[in-house]
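TA notes, week 10

Several of you asked for a full example with nothing omitted. So below is the full record: structure tokens for the whole chain, then the designed sequence directly under it. When grading your own attempts, check the secondary structure regions first.
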């Protein structure tokens, strides 16, 4: 295969994955927010009180999280084969969850049934009278049969064994290995404020959570809070001379956004001075992620920040220490690396102080 064909294949596979992820993110956000609200209302024992508002919301959030893998698989298949791939994709995702092969099974199954449906759509020749039934019945039915056979015979058994090995390996990690794992995850988040690079780490954490491993998710929650908190504190309180007046205003919002794990609150600072901000936030978030793993911080929800604390494990002292150390390190590095802002750059109406647009994405 030529380099050009390899590049095109990778681009195509990546496009299908990103389509699945883009449809999955709102489901994760909905489930995470519902669980966070339920936890805020019902506290740490929310699941011990059936029928209460907190229990209902938290339980609804858990139900939404159960849709994550099926939605991912369905829309990978949809991206490949259009609407006929949705039903087989949903089926393969549900089977992946039931067989406890979660994220990995959903991704592989989504690709396989998607390409199977595309093959049927392209190569199966039928009578003109039957053609209207192809996208509505025949392709989804054949795709569904393929999904069952693939998951039951080809994908399920070996992946279930591999998944068990990986989970056992993760559980047997020593403190050094766990620190490194959490540091890498946190560092990715800190590079671009949970943008495309950070999504690599958050996708891994979300996937492991779907498989019942909550440590990486706890590290992610803590690490995602650090960049906006540190930048907000630095610009408002400790290093005001290093920021424009507009950044100081943005810093007040960044502190609030950081408390609730909206990492994108740090984007105005990153966009204005990326070469100095990125090393500071990446190192601080990496330290937080590593410490959170060592302290055994766990989270059954994907987002929320302090709103998620009631349902997280080892918040006191683990999460609080990890976040505090990460913020202190980041603020200290910003004090060393960032330069003072010349007085004229703070002048109102200066071209360098144009309003920066920030797009908030839930992780």
């Amino acid at each position: 295969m030529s380099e050009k064909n390899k590049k095109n294949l990778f681009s195509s596979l990546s496009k299908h994955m990103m389509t699945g992820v883009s449809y999955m993110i709102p489901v994760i956000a909905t489930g995470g927010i519902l669980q966070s609200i339920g936890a805020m209302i019902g506290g740490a024992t929310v699941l011990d009180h059936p029928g209460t508002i907190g229990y209902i919301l938290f339980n609804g959030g858990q139900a939404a999280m159960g849709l994550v893998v099926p939605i991912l698989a369905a829309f990978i298949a949809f991206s490949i084969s259009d609407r006929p791939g949705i039903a087989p994709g949903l089926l393969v995702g549900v089977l992946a969850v039931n067989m406890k092969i979660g994220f990995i099974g959903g991704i592989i199954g989504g690709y396989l049934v998607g390409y199977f449906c595309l093959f049927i759509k392209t190569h199966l020749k039928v009578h003109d009278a039957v053609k209207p039934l192809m996208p509505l019945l025949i392709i989804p039915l054949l795709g569904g049969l393929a999904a069952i056979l693939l998951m039951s015979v080809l994908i399920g058994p070996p992946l279930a064994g591999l998944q068990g090995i990986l989970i056992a390996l993760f559980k047997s990690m020593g403190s050094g290995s766990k620190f490194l794992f959490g540091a890498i995850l946190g560092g990715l988040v800190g590079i671009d404020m949970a943008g495309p690079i950070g999504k690599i780490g958050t996708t891994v954490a979300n996937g492991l959570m779907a498989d019942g491993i909550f440590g990486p998710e706890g590290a992610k929650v803590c690490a995602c809070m650090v960049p906006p908190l540190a930048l907000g504190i630095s610009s408002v309180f400790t290093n005001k001379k290093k920021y424009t007046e507009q950044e100081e205003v943005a810093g007040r919002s960044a502190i609030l956004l950081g408390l609730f794990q909206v990492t994108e609150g740090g984007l105005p600072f990153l966009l204005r001075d990326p070469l100095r901000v990125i090393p500071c936030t990446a190192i601080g978030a990496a330290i937080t992620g590593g410490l959170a793993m060592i302290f055994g911080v766990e989270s059954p929800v994907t987002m929320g920040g302090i709103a998620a604390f009631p349902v997280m494990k080892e918040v006191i002292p683990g999460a609080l220490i990890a976040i505090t150390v990460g913020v202190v390190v980041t603020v200290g590095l910003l004090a060393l690396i960032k330069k003072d802002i010349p007085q004229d750059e703070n002048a109102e109406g200066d071209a360098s102080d144009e309003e920066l647009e920030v797009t908030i994405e839930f992780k």
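The longest helix spans residues 3-42. Use that as a sanity check on your answer.
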